[in-house]
Structure formats: structure tokens, C-alpha cells
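Design request, C-alpha cells follow.
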């Protein structure tokens, strides 16, 4: 910050505020403990007291919004954020495509599908739902490993002709560890040899009792290929979301999470972010992991420019100084200087980490987080 109160400076120096006021008086400045002094004056004081100007601690520089809780009366309903998980080739990508095809709002808008790592669907007669479709193994696990739990509902997709496989079990374990409610999509129901009942029975071995087995976990038979059962699946998500009563304060500076980031030939560093709370606007100054910037443009999942993005609304952000990583927090801050300060601090920390330790595996990070 450009200035600091005398009281805060005294606290950081481990000196009495009154002594600082006295010293300032001797320098010809009449200042009370709650007034600000500029950086140069602060440094003068620090030296005067025989201290050295030091790099400040993390809690002073970095942003931690976890303690900053929104008042109950500021909260408004928000869409759920959904992740699809399951064994390779069981139909995750096909299902995401089929679901996208069921988007009424998108079709009306006439936009072209853009793969930006997340999209929002409004099913016929239903409420909007946000899906993460970041490729690789998997947005969900990676972001959770980095401490960003942005998924509200997990869809476990299991191919009815193949049953539970190692990655299905892995997905089940991740979903359980994250304590996210699950909906089972039994896919490829159109295929010869499809046996949905066998899938349900196999799930029992992992303490997942689906509704068809008189349990509480919703299960839906689908064919991503033939696009059957998709409406039912979306209904199941809306039902689950209702139970969760998801809410966020839209009327504040945005707190978001980076879902995907890439260097775009024409546009420079581009990040897809998912807003957790607040509303992100064009012109906002932000920090995204070790990157800083000012929102130059926001682009939705239909390639349309939008002026703002509220809670659970995924958008591409243009105007980054460098590339953040998936899972990095994206936070709107008051000014450029603050953004730079935090971004520089994080970059320094990353550099230090890189030189002092070997990269950690995803599994190791999981073990650490518990
Ligand atoms: P992912 O690896 O989980 O993303 O699986 P994909 O979506 O790439 O699907 C793997 C293969 O299964 C592809 O050849 C799909 O066409 C096929 N597939 C996906 N869903 C269905 C389905 O419902 N029925 C049939 N018959 N094939 C499907
Ligand atoms: Mg896939």
C-alpha cells in the first residue's frame, strides 16, 4: 500500500504508537495514530527506530478472503457447478456434448459453442446449470488438490456394458473425500450387453446405494450417443441443487477460480474463470495466482462478449499479465498497485519453491490435504 496508519506501522515494528507520534512530531509532522503516513515517511521512521525495512509476512501481502464471509441477507440463489467423472471411454466427453445440446438459452442466443473449460446450460423448464469440461485428468481432482473446491455436484458416469473400472473407483474416492453429492449416470444404455442392474450392484460394494436400490443416490440411465435420458439427468441435477440451497452474494467485488488458462495467439494470456461470489466486470483490476491484470473483455461460452459475470457464471477473461494455473484464486482488488504487489509476491514464492523443492505429485498433494 502507498500509505499506512501510524498504529499499524507501530504494530509491525513492535513499537508503541505514542513513540512514533512523538518521533513524527520531532520531524515536524503532527499526526495522530489513526492517520496515514506515506511510504517514505514510514521508511524514515523504521530507520529512526533502528529497524530495517523488511519483506513483510504473507498475511500482510497476500490475499485471504476465507475469513471474509458475506452476511446472510446479501445471499441470492446461484446455479450449481457440476463435474463429470468416470473411467476413460465411459462417455464423459460424449455426455458433456449431449448435455450442451440440451441448452435452450444457448440455442436461442444463436451463439457458436466455444470450448472454454466450462459452460452453462439452461434445460427446458429448468434452472441454469454450470458444467466444468476441462480436459485432462480431471479439473475436479486437480483443483481440489490445490485447495479449490468449486464443484457442488459430481456426476459419476459408468458405462453399462463395462461396469466399474479402476478409474471409476478412483473417482468415487475423490468424490467421497470432497464430500460432494453424487449422481450416477449409467451410460451406453443403448448398447448390446448393457446391464444397468449390474452397475447398481457393483456400486453397493463401494457403499453407494442408488435410488433404484432403495438408496438415496440418484441414478439415471442415459445414452450420450443417442441423447436419451439427458433431460432426466438434468432434472436430477436441478433436484439435487435445490436440496443444497446454493447461494452467493452477487453485489460485491468478484472472488473467482481459474478453471483453465492458455496463451492465445491473437489474444495473449486468456483464463477461464468461474465466479464464486460477487460480479466480475469489464475494467476490474484483479490478481489471478501470480498474474495480475485489468479485465479488458469478458467472453462467454458462446463466444459472446459480456459486460459482467455473476456467481457460477463461467467466462473467459482477457487482460492478464501472464498465465495463471487451473485452481488459482482470481480476486478483484482495489487498485493496480495492490494487484502488482500480490502478484509479485506470489511469483517470488513460486520461484523460491521451484528452486528449493522437487515438484510434488498430485497424489502427494492429496495425501497432504487429507
Ligand atoms: P471419455 O473418455 O469418458 O470422455 O469417453 P468418450 O465420450 O470419449 O466416449 C468413448 C467412446 O464411447 C466414444 O467412441 C463414444 O462414441 C462412445 N460412447 C459414448 N457414449 C456412448 C453411448 O451412450 N452409447 C454408445 N453406444 N457409445 C457411446
Ligand atoms: Mg473424454
Amino acid at each position: 500500500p502507498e500509505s499506512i496508519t501510524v498504529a499499524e506501522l507501530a504494530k509491525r515494528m513492535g513499537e508503541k504508537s505514542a513513540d512514533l507520534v512523538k518521533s513524527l512530531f520531532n520531524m515536524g509532522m503532527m499526526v495522530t495514530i489513526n492517520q496515514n503516513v506515506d511510504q517514505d515517511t514510514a521508511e524514515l521512521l523504521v530507520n529512526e527506530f533502528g529497524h530495517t525495512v523488511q519483506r513483510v509476512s504473507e498475511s500482510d501481502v497476500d490475499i485471504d478472503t476465507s475469513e471474509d464471509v458475506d452476511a446472510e441477507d446479501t445471499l441470492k440463489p446461484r446455479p450449481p457447478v457440476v463435474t463429470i467423472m468416470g473411467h476413460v471411454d465411459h462417455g464423459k466427453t460424449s455426455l458433456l456434448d449431449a448435455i450442451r445440446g440440451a441448452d435452450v438459452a444457448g440455442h436461442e442466443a444463436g451463439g457458436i459453442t466455444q470450448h472454454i473449460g466450462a459452460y452453462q446450460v439452461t434445460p427446458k423448464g429448468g434452472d441454469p446449470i454450470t458444467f466444468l469440461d476441462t480436459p485432462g485428468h480431471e479439473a475436479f481432482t486437480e483443483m481440489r488438490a490445490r485447495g479449490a473446491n468449486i464443484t457442488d455436484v459430481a456426476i459419476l458416469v459408468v458405462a453399462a456394458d463395462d461396469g466399474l473400472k479402476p478409474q471409476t473407483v478412483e473417482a468415487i474416492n475423490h468424490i467421497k473425500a470432497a464430500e460432494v453429492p453424487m449422481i450416477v449416470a449409467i451410460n451406453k444404455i443403448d448398447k448390446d450387453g448393457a446391464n444397468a442392474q449390474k452397475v447398481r450392484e457393483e456400486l453397493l460394494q463401494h457403499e453407494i446405494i442408488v435410488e433404484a436400490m432403495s438408496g438415496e443416490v440418484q441414478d439415471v440411465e442415459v445414452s450420450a450417443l443417442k441423447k436419451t435420458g439427458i433431460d432426466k439427468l438434468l432434472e436430477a441435477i436441478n433436484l439435487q441443487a435445490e436440496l443444497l440451497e446454493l447461494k452467493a452474494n452477487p453485489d460485491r467485488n468478484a472472488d473467482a477460480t481459474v478453471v483453465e488458462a492458455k496463451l492465445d495467439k491473437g489474444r495473449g494470456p486468456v483464463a477461464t474463470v468461474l465466479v464464486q461470489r460477487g460480479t466480475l466486470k469489464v475494467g476490474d483490476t484483479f490478481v489471478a495466482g501470480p498474474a495480475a491484470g485489468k479485465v479488458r473483455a469478458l467472453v462467454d461460452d458462446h463466444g459472446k462478449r459480456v459486460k459482467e459475470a455473476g456467481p457460477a457464471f463461467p467466462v473467459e477473461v482477457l487482460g492478464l499479465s501472464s498465465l495463471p494455473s487451473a485452481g488459482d484464486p482470481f480476486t478483484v482488488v482495489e487498485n493496480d498497485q495492490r494487484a502488482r504487489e500480490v502478484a509479485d509476491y506470489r511469483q517470488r514464492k513460486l520461484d523460491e519453491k521451484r528452486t528449493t523443492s522437487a515438484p510434488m505429485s498430485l497424489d502427494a498433494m492429496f495425501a497432504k490435504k487429507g
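Comment from the thread starter after seeing the answer: thanks! The first helix runs from residue 6 to 13.
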